[in-house]
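Bench notes, afternoon.
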Amino acid sequence: MILQTFFMKRYPVIISIIFSSTILFAQKPLKGNAGEIILTPPLEMGYTLGGYGDRMNKPAEGIHDDIRAKALVLSDGEKKFAIVTMDILGLPPNVKPAVVKKLADKGWRMENMLFLPSHAHTSLEMMALNDRNIFNIPNIGIFQPELLDFVINKLTELIEATDRDLKPVKAGTGQVTLKDINHNRRDDKFVDRELTVTRIDHADGRPMAVLVNWTAHPTIMGAEDMWVSAGWPGYMQRDLAAWIGDGAIVMYYNGAEGDQSVNFLGGESHYERAENYGRTIAIQAKKVYENINTISDPIFAWTYSTIELPPRQPHPTFMETGGTEYGLDEQKIKMFLEQVLPATTHTIAFRLDYLIIVGAPGEMIAELGLDIKTGLKKEGIQYPVIGGLADEWVSYILTEKEYHEGGYETSVSFYGPALGKTVKNPMLKNTLKLIE
């Protein structure tokens, strides 16, 4: 493995793989830039907040703190890649292609951008952004064309602005295991407790961007909380950016969070609890950040592959667990799934030296995510992480065992019991191409 890695770093190649898969390696001097933009729409737009059907599409009542989108663009002078994080619930399948269409003449494609929502539950309703959502059902969110245009235009503006004036960078990653601050809400034994921090510095050591991966639902705020907020990830990003200083842009992305919840750490209101939780993660992330060694010639590579999904179908117990919350009867749910959910999806794996981000197109449970991470560690990758809800939300992604266990997560798992292995195996296979 050591000789293999040395060969890859010193004698890179560019390889094209058939079957909708591409691997791109680079070993020229790496340059980058980071940027951010406020993604909070004006309240006059009357948009709802996503994550809870109980809100019944009622519009947001105020702005507690702004939601933001952030971008990191890296390039070797010939090829480039963008990581885009955003403080929103998730993305329907139409958003990223619309952004790509606007940026196609700038060299951006589906393959060289990775969109990573935080899964904030006091941010924009995902179904309000889905242009195939024609059902006008308040429980699931009503499509708002003006909101979709707003988000697409903001993301396009952000990427265009960040893809300028790239400077030489150094990069490195560190990690720590944290206990007692997240748990498996399905009472399963699988919990992802790895906090992974990546720093991208200017060549002179000044901070440019910091990527933080921690696996937990941002659900401290509930359905009764009607003010826009980025939740605990927003507090974490703001605190860490302020402590690092010098213009550092902190970018949070979630993991295989399908069954991972936070452990509340005190506070009188939900917002105070979110602030306390975010600050706790920020404190630990800063400790990791300060001990990361950066290098100027990291492996820079990515790979993209499509995934054929199983037939769309509601869980047999859907009407008991999710039908009421989402206002769908047996006839409507079948029409809904065929209309708004994709028949195919994709996965992107991005490598920056010994960090590999593996994109999961939905809410994958921790057991599946940990299987992927374990497989990559066996191949010598020190810091494999899952990028949850990557590019689009297809549904919850469960093991067959957990699918048959029932519960809330199964009510929003829409491709049958085989979905877990159908998505996990191609994710791992696609990623392994980065280390062959």
